[in-house]
Amino acid sequence: MSVNERLKSEKMVFDGAMGTQLNLGGMPPGVCPEEWAASHPDVLKGIHDRYLTAGAQTVTTSTFGGSRMKLRQHGFNDNPLELN
């Protein structure tokens, strides 16, 4: 069943505390989470693997702050599409 079909037929909850998980994976305070996750794909994959093992049926990536305005705060406003 596709995600679109599932969204029409059942309730899905999207909340993964990705920032917390990235911190536990070694991301230092004050860095750009989107860039850090992109440059540490093994950590991101591990987070997703743990969610799937725990029974999650959907995982999302770490683009909560992936807008041009938010990325500008970290100096990554040149190409937000590429970073996302």
What would your notes on this structure say?
The chain is mainly α and 84 residues long. Helices cover 51% and strands 0% of the residues. It is built from six helices and no strands. The model has no long low-confidence stretch (mean pLDDT 85).
Blueprint of the fold:
Layout: H1 3-9, H2 18-24, H3 33-39, H4 41-53, H5 68-72, H6 80-83
What is the overall pLDDT average? 85
Number of helices: 6
Count of individual beta strands? 0
Main sheet properties? none
Q: Please estimate the helix content.
A: 40-55%
Note the overall shape.
Answer: globular
Low-confidence stretches: none
Strand content: under 5%
**Topology pattern, helix = H, strand = E:** HHHHHH
- The termini sit apart by 26 Å
SS-derived structural category: mainly alpha
Rg to the nearest angstrom?
Answer: 14 Å
List keywords for this structure.
84 residues; mainly alpha; 6 helices; 0% strand
Question: Could you give a short description of this structure?
Answer:
Helices cover 51% and strands 0% of the residues. It has six helices and no strands.
